[in-house]
Amino acid sequence: MSLAALLEAGESVFSAWSSIPDSQTVELVAGLDFGAVTLDMQHGGHHEDSVLRGIGGIRLNRKHPMVRIPVGRFDMASRALDMGAEAVIAPMVNSVQDARAFAAAMKYPPTGLRSWGPSFAMPRSGKSDGQAWLETANAETIAFAMIETRQALSALDDVLAVDGIDGVLVGPSDFSIAWSNGRTVDPALEDMMPAIETIAQKTRAAGKHAAIYVVDPGLVGRFHEMGFRLFALGAEAAYMQEGAPAMLKAARDSIKF
Amino acid sequence: MSLAALLEAGESVFSAWSSIPDSQTVELVAGLDFGAVTLDMQHGGHHEDSVLRGIGGIRLNRKHPMVRIPVGRFDMASRALDMGAEAVIAPMVNSVQDARAFAAAMKYPPTGLRSWGPSFAMPRSGKSDGQAWLETANAETIAFAMIETRQALSALDDVLAVDGIDGVLVGPSDFSIAWSNGRTVDPALEDMMPAIETIAQKTRAAGKHAAIYVVDPGLVGRFHEMGFRLFALGAEAAYMQEGAPAMLKAARDSIKF
Amino acid sequence: MSLAALLEAGESVFSAWSSIPDSQTVELVAGLDFGAVTLDMQHGGHHEDSVLRGIGGIRLNRKHPMVRIPVGRFDMASRALDMGAEAVIAPMVNSVQDARAFAAAMKYPPTGLRSWGPSFAMPRSGKSDGQAWLETANAETIAFAMIETRQALSALDDVLAVDGIDGVLVGPSDFSIAWSNGRTVDPALEDMMPAIETIAQKTRAAGKHAAIYVVDPGLVGRFHEMGFRLFALGAEAAYMQEGAPAMLKAARDSIKF
Amino acid sequence: MSLAALLEAGESVFSAWSSIPDSQTVELVAGLDFGAVTLDMQHGGHHEDSVLRGIGGIRLNRKHPMVRIPVGRFDMASRALDMGAEAVIAPMVNSVQDARAFAAAMKYPPTGLRSWGPSFAMPRSGKSDGQAWLETANAETIAFAMIETRQALSALDDVLAVDGIDGVLVGPSDFSIAWSNGRTVDPALEDMMPAIETIAQKTRAAGKHAAIYVVDPGLVGRFHEMGFRLFALGAEAAYMQEGAPAMLKAARDSIKF
Amino acid sequence: MSLAALLEAGESVFSAWSSIPDSQTVELVAGLDFGAVTLDMQHGGHHEDSVLRGIGGIRLNRKHPMVRIPVGRFDMASRALDMGAEAVIAPMVNSVQDARAFAAAMKYPPTGLRSWGPSFAMPRSGKSDGQAWLETANAETIAFAMIETRQALSALDDVLAVDGIDGVLVGPSDFSIAWSNGRTVDPALEDMMPAIETIAQKTRAAGKHAAIYVVDPGLVGRFHEMGFRLFALGAEAAYMQEGAPAMLKAARDSIKF
Amino acid sequence: MSLAALLEAGESVFSAWSSIPDSQTVELVAGLDFGAVTLDMQHGGHHEDSVLRGIGGIRLNRKHPMVRIPVGRFDMASRALDMGAEAVIAPMVNSVQDARAFAAAMKYPPTGLRSWGPSFAMPRSGKSDGQAWLETANAETIAFAMIETRQALSALDDVLAVDGIDGVLVGPSDFSIAWSNGRTVDPALEDMMPAIETIAQKTRAAGKHAAIYVVDPGLVGRFHEMGFRLFALGAEAAYMQEGAPAMLKAARDSIKF
Q: D–C contact (≥3 CB pairs within 8 Å)?
């Protein structure tokens, strides 16, 4: 079942997050109990090579591969799909022009201008019929536009109206900086919560997918109630910094002094 | 003899195509009986590092290195030249603005705005006189604009008039999608053949080089008659998928049951 | 079904051969129509890193991963298993001492001295019960000793008697050099064929697996009759050098002069 | 003491230059007697991966990491900062629009639009307080706009007025090509020296940092008098081509004939 | 303070464990709250390149770098020291001959036969006086022999008597397999605990360091009482598999159904 | 002209030395004015992958590729030849047994036991006739045994008598440690010079090649008089540490205070 189908069915999906550009580390992350894995090229260290090789390890673990591209690098949106990503996240989609450029890179004609060449994606998906691929790819890949500034919020209705934009992903840290006019970074900023709820509601109303990156796992329930269904948590540093101290504490506590 | 000189002399050139971003694989491809090797950064997996290192293996085999950049990544056009490419292919040159931006990245002033710094290209070519390099580089490097949409076809005359655009390369799969308004991907689509012939004729009439990517080798003759002289075939997957089954069939057939 | 089970069932298995130490190239090879893929660390360029990452791509294509280690590098035999190989091929097993050292590295106690730590193999196989792994791993991994010298032939009975040696693999090029006392390299040398047949017969008589590297696919039938069941063919260079010229010939022939 | 603080204090800083995209080579360069190391992504071979890993080696040697991005790749300006660079150099800033886009990528709101996510920079700097990072990062990172064309010179006053542009770096080779209208590449071109002095003076007058890439070390004094304080020299090829011949000459001269 | 000095002073040291051969992952692990980091080349994926580059990230975080070599690869013991490791762990030291070969690779003459060439270790330690290095290196590097079989236990007194062996490290999983004659893998096997205590006592009595790999952190106290002072815990998979489920549980629990 | 032929003709050859395991750095070193380049796997960071890829860059610059293997890693001697090395240096050949094992790995039967499979060396040399390769390879590849201990000196006559050992290479740093019984590291130690001269004389008398690693280039003449003809100087760190300070000094001196 594709990620698009899962979300279409209303399922909640948790995505792991990977910042380390190394295929073996990605394979490890893909073995964790998440349904999807996002390779981060914006703030994480992923790049063309690590995305290409990392997607292999994600598929080996039968998880859904997602890629976040750097700001404005729509060339990479197409490439991520050619490498086998099921979803691409574009940061800082602050205008309808940004949204259109992103959609153009994500969808084959006539919806967009994506160029033909699924060199890695087709064999990795076990498919070999090009014509069938052309006919189904647009529906089976997801374009998430990140909404993380006041401009983006203002443009939201127009962004959601762009054919080829399949959903939005909220970046709460940047949104908090924007909401506080640069004064505060706080992914749980109470002031901005109503705006975040509005984003979810408008997105759902437009028949599209609402996703959010979550720093504090305890907030997932609240976002779920707002209408979000895809939740990204991580990355490697967070998993390790949660797990290793627990192990070290148990070790140190066991020593009697 | 440079690739530019070969094409100027009217020679037919076959280029291998490489999708695997690995210098050792490129060295292997460069050992095949093609005259040039194209490293594909658009639909193939090549990236800055694999292009830098791959060109070494191409030159070791005395073949002509070419690079296809991702859509709109004109920064990479300059970099490919600095790394030692003799030709750069830019996909989706759909307007004269695209063509001018591409030419600007490919040519030193006053033709373009290419910045000085042939850090790898000069030593790899065995040259050390910077002034001579400046004076000859524009003529010895080839900018191929890809014509693969209806917009590109409409803009062709203007594109060909841009100083610094040395030729066009037709992408028949994308062109078939465009020609069928998104309905069909078929690199041998009969309907579009007259348009492809027009591209070749206009290009030759403008005194520039006509190139084409070819999926079915049997079509090369037809394209040659149209006026194309550079033919790209491949990539690694195609060579292996042609060769390995032949070996396996011979092996299986030799077993008596 | 494991490779061991397949061979136990008397199936003929064809293994692709990979010399290029690059995980993406291996993934491509693994997509060809072979049942297994051997990563060659002796004459090929594979190394610890490429084996670790390459096995991922082989498993992604549901093929059986095999590794040929360098001469005498039995430390690597254990490591290949820890990385997920189902079979390991040790070259130049010329004495019963060599065979014992190889078996020791391949099998957990009490058969051998393999150290515990299937860090990558267990998660890649989808298993998580260490005790079950310990109890089944020895039977599900295959140790192939290469027989490729006169000394090896003399020691064959003793080698086959070593607990933990599961089969032999004949290297016909080296065997031809040995057979001709250094005068000839000819993997089809007629003189040595009776000796090769003897190897197959003794191996089968000992209840073990007979494998052979085959340069000319047409010889597979003959080796099959001798009793060999695993046939290795390749590597990348061979597939490409078979496939690319066929494509180029079709292209050149299509041009009318 | 940060690089920004050093320059603020009027110190002269010498930066090594690295073209080889390899973290171990960068570590070696960082061990030389320079105060900073610049990783060059424009004409050098550096890329996302080598910058991420290279900065580690620079910090290990307690030097200041700088990155030159490719033309127009402002997405990479933000990424370089996230990886731990203290300064970013943008080539071909030829207009105030270029300068604004560069500043936007370099500075957090409200000055710019830099997105939040110092995944590698924060741990590498030994800091963990996000809010403090947000409040100090803009002042502690340096945006150098390259002035290397006649257009850039014309736009200089406006560029220097952009909030978030902290200084300029002159590229004398490109500037000589521009100054000679494409006729000459000569980083010591006498004709252009008054213009270069003007750049330094205007930059200093605007309270910003004047930097220059220097091919002939003997010119540093002259540039210093003009007002430049950061001098980049190199890269690896230059250091080796200066050092190895000296060693070889000593060796050859020691042989008596 | 060197690791040797710390252990000499009777301090308890916790070492992280790394299996992923990637310098950026190692840098992340080195940022966790352990005092040392061990790069595992036996069951982990580390290799020459990842050890060389990984040690940089460990030193950047001011932790003590340790390396576990593959079985019998004493060439790598010397190389690990040349790359900057402070301690090397050799697995399967089952005889006094093994111990002598290990010590020979670890110590400069006259104690051993380590060859001169600290190409990376010296600059990484900030030292430049070769003679001083020669005089102090043997005391400042630690050779840990792994005791994990019955043979090793029998040979323990002799192993401990070898000049150049500085301590032992117990591998409890392998030891449990040995102790149960291949029937069980259980790093907490009660039956073997007296033998493990004996190892610690003899080691301490010989004036050497007792170290142990610990699967269950809760056992550290017990091993500490036996006399062990260096405890290795991990690796990346363990940290993530401890941390990610905790985050996911918090996330899932927060959703109200 | 092969390196073997050059040395046979009595030419003096200077070899660069490379410690950085990176193909692009090797290509740079290969562009310096040395006749050969040695990739160091013992004290340098080179490994299987960097040797494979580095040799490409050496051949691109038409220099002679040499490889120094780690202590006792004779499997790698064969592999280096398969990758295209013309000479292999084995460190710590301290006995005739070591020499025989080394020769066995270096030479095809009947001289040695080198296994067939010049997968990379043949295409890189432009040759394709296997039988001719078999007949000429032993003469065209050079096995250098390092003489760097008192044991090695004692065994020298026997080592030189081994068929397949083509020369010796003196490591003066290790030899000084040995000569001083571990007290001093001094590659110019006066006391040992007569012994070094003896090595050269015996080697020449045996009709074999005398080579030496030289730290102080000024000593080359003296070693040349002793009979040495291949001189290794370097590596990258040395070239840079000679060149960069010269550039920095010129820069600093040019500033008037």
A: no
pLDDT tens digits for A158-190? 999 999 999 999 999 999 999 999 999 999 999
**Nearest residue in chain E measured CA to CA from C112:** E182
SS (H, E, C) chain C: CCHHHHHHCCCCEEEEEECCCCHHHHHHHHCCCCCEEEEECCCCCCCHHHHHHHHHHHHHCCCEEEEECCCCCHHHHHHHHHHCCCEEEECCCCCHHHHHHHHHHHCCCCCCCCCCCCCCHHHHHCCCCHHHHHHHHHHHCEEEEEECCHHHHHCHHHHHHCCCCCEEEECHHHHHHHHCCCCCCCCCCHHHHHHHHHHHHHHHHCCCEEEEECCCHHHHHHHHHHCCCEEEEECHHHHHHHHHHHHHHHHHHHCCC
Q: Tell me the nearest-neighbour CA distance from F74 into chain E, angstroms.
A: 11
CB contact under 8 Å between F234 and D244, yes or no, is: yes
Interface test with B, best of C19, C32, C240 (most B CBs within 10 A): C240
CB under 8 Å to F230, separation ≥6 — which residues?
Answer: F7, F12, F13, F14, F15, F36, F167, F169, F209, F210, F211, F212
How large is the ipTM? 0.97
> All domains of chain A, ordered by start, with CATH?
3-253 (3.20.20.60)
Of all residues in chain C, the percent with pLDDT exceeding 70 is: 100
Q: Which residues on A lie below 8 Å from C123 (Cβ)?
A: 31
With touching defined as 3 or more inter-chain CB pairs under 8 Å, the answer for chains F and A is no
Q: Chain D residue with minimal CA distance to F223?
A: D255
CA distance C184 to chain F (A): 6
Q: Which of A22, A24, A29 to mutate to test the interface with C (most CBs of C within 10 A)?
A: A24
Radius of gyration of chain A (CA): 18
Q: Which pTM does this prediction carry?
A: 0.98
Quick one: pLDDT at residue A89? 98
Contact C38/C29 with Cβ under 8 angstroms?
no
The DSSP letter of residue A182 is T
CB contact under 8 A, A148 and D115: yes
> Do B238 and C239 lie within an 8 Å CB cutoff?
no
pLDDT surpasses 80 at A220: yes
D200 half-sphere exposure, CB direction, 13 A CA radius:
21
**Facing residue for A120 by CB, picked from B45, B181, B186:** B45
> Tens digit of pLDDT for each residue in F26-55?
999 999 999 999 999 999 999 999 999 999
The partner residue sitting opposite F115, judged by closest CB among C44, C45, C91, is C91
